[in-house]
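Why run this: before we spend reagent on co-expression, it is cheaper to look at a predicted model of the complex and decide which construct boundaries make sense. The entries below are exactly what would go into the expression plan.
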Amino acid sequence: MKTIAVLTSGGDSPGMNAAVRAVIRSAGYFGYDILGIRFGYKGLMEADFVRLQSSDVSGIIQRGGTILKSARSEEFHEKEGRNRAAENLKKAGVEALITIGGDGTFRGATLLAQEHGINTVGIPGTIDNDLIGSDETIGYDTALNTAMQAIDKVRDTADAHERLFLVEVMGRDAGFIALETGIACGAELIILPEKLTHIEEIKESLNKVLKVQRRSTLVVVAEGDHTGGAIELSKKLEPDFKQYDMRVAILGHIQRGGSPTAHDRVLASRLGYEAVNAIHNEKSEVMVGVINHDVKITPIKETFGKIKEINFDLVELAKVLR
Ligand code: ATP
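The model came back. Tokens follow.
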């Protein structure tokens, strides 16, 4: 019987457990054995393996985090590390590997496939939504909703004191979370990494916004913004906006945690099944995703180095509605 291995790697995202569950249950459906690898590539190099069966994934669909744990590993960047990983997989009789993670995770898997002939299939799991080949990645919707709920709370206190708040959300290179939470929370200004915004431009926009009498002013800032994030931005704004009671809130890791939304659970369930199905159909070096509601299999190399664009119509919409 064929053995498939599964790991979660890179930044964790809510819904990874739902994906692991779907992989394990689908593997059972197709008649494959399944090996869980703990702590991503680090665990793979250390043969930190656990045999999993259907009953092991009961009651995890609603849990955030990942029961397989996640890690980042410098050693896996080296050929020697990957040789050790491949040896461990071969010893355990593994013929195919499913990786749940982001771009870096898929790059590592591709090298493993090319150097050692192990079939690999990627499932996009990252809150940043920065992978092409899927309209949304697992965890993005939950992170959005978590950020939205937190920002709503910031708005309440901002209203009470008529404050100017800079709220930083996650997104080192991509502004998906900032853009959509900004719209969902009625932010007066949204600062994105995709747009090179000069400080003078921000000041001008802020001045326009502040001219209108409001109970509070909310600026949503992506952490990877060119100005250096919310704290740096506040320092740059401070001299010109002294008259306002300006505060900074950094949402941070709460955006990674929590119970996945229905949307993420369903996405993870679909993609977990499709990953096993892809292996069943002898596919390798591919990523499974959902585009326009349909499952899409994309050669993994096509996703490398390509930037998924934010929806610039939404950027314009945010300006109209502020
Ligand atoms: P996220 O988007 O949430 O950060 P990610 O999968 O992109 O997820 P990374 O830290 O970039 O997260 O990658 C996870 C792991 O994959 C790394 O710690 C490393 O072990 C491996 N990896 C990343 N890039 C490569 C590469 N170019 N070659 C070999 N291994 C890689």
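Residues 76 and 82 are 6 Å apart (CA to CA). The first strand starts at residue 3 and ends at 8. Bring this page to Monday's planning discussion.
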